[in-house]
Amino acid sequence: MLSTIKMNIKPGILLMILLSSFCVWSQQNPQFSQYLQNPVVINPGMTGVESYLELTAAYRNQWTGFEGAPRTTTFSFHTPTYLLSSRSSVREGDTHQGIGALVYTDDTGPIKRGGFYGSYAYHLKVSNKWLVSVGTFLGATQFKYDASQAILVENPFDLLVQDTSSLNLDASLGIYLYSDNFFGGITGNHLFENDIPYAVEDGVLNTSGTFRRNYNLLLGGRIPLNDLWEAVPSVLIKSVSGAPVQWDLSTKMTYDNKYWGALSYRNRDAMVFMAGVQLAERFLVSYSYDWTISDFNPGRSGTHEIILGYRFAFGNQKCACPQYSM
To answer: Pairing state of beta strands 111-125 and 131-145?
Structure first.
């Protein structure tokens, strides 16, 4: 039997939860602006897509300055398996396999989520120019509710609202098609549709809920403009049952494979400004700022996201520039 509890929480936290239920919880996945810089977080099919081992750490602080605002942290690595073995005959552009791992935390007021996954992808060369990969995340998600962060005005001592934690097996499946000048992929997340103890819907706290399956579609391309400049247009479409479709339309410009800037529009949500630099051929730093344009705008407070990455190259490689992903 489904129970519901009307909430009246500390004003800042309540606003964050309501905004989160519209902008983040409706997708039931953490929001990312710089997914092209950290693509493994949206599609396991991109595990091992390049000829280097990449370590990435990312932090996102949404609606800065508001108590209980969403904060997301991710750590990931991925690599083609031939870099870890003596199979020197395998090179970039050949059929190969990739492995990796992803850990994330996503906190919004009393709701705290996290996940840890191993990833695997098989990349099949289907022609001289094209490869297609199929990848999976397999791991677990953890959901926590901290009742001390919520103040229930109608019934402050409601026994239905209490600290709780659940740990469930979780999986995602992704397909990625790519060449030198095009990339595209589709991903399905939360394939097991696990039950969770609480869910926020229409500003009401329900004492049962479900991680619904959700899907994303990424399409993009690389357009060389001259020897130094390259344009990378892309679109990311996200969908989950019971919520509006959300899409990001982005244009990225890169210079000399070392510097880049981008502008993105996320419907129903924000304009995003991004910039980054590759240092010493291996170390990457990038930053984005989301300027909220939706009706759910908490005082025009922005969102900050920073990514740090390091690429380990092996063998005869002279640089760690991406060829099949951005």
So the answer is: antiparallel
Query: What secondary structure letter does DSSP report for 316?
Result: T
Is 44 within 8 Å of 187 (Cβ atoms)?
yes
- Looking at mean pLDDT, say which of 168-182, 237-251, 311-325 comes out highest: 168-182
| Tokens linked to 258 | 């070392």
H or E element: which one contains 104?
A: strand 96-108
Rg of the Cα trace of the chain? 20
> Tokens 């936290």, residue?
13
Calpha distance 91→95 (Å, rounded): 9
* Dist. CA 147–CA 104, nearest whole Å: 22
How do residues 31-58 score in pLDDT, each as one tens digit? 899 998 888 999 999 999 988 899 999 9
Specify the 3-state DSSP secondary structure of 155. Answer: coil
- For the record, the structure tokens of 323 come out as 């060829």
Q: What is the bridge-based pairing of β-strands 259-266 and 270-279? A: antiparallel
Residues 187/214, Cβ–Cβ less than 8 Å: no
CB 270 within 8 A of CB 250: no
What global pTM score does this model have? Answer: 0.83
Cβ(274)–Cβ(33) below 8 Å: yes
Sheet holding 204-206, edge to edge: 4-6, 204-206, 199-201
CA distance 62 to 290: 8
Domain ranges within the chain, ordered by starting residue: 4-224
Q: Point out which residues pair with 5 in neighbouring strands.
A: 205
C-beta atoms surrounding 124 within 10 Å: 12
Residue 186 CA to residue 307 CA, distance in Å, equals 23
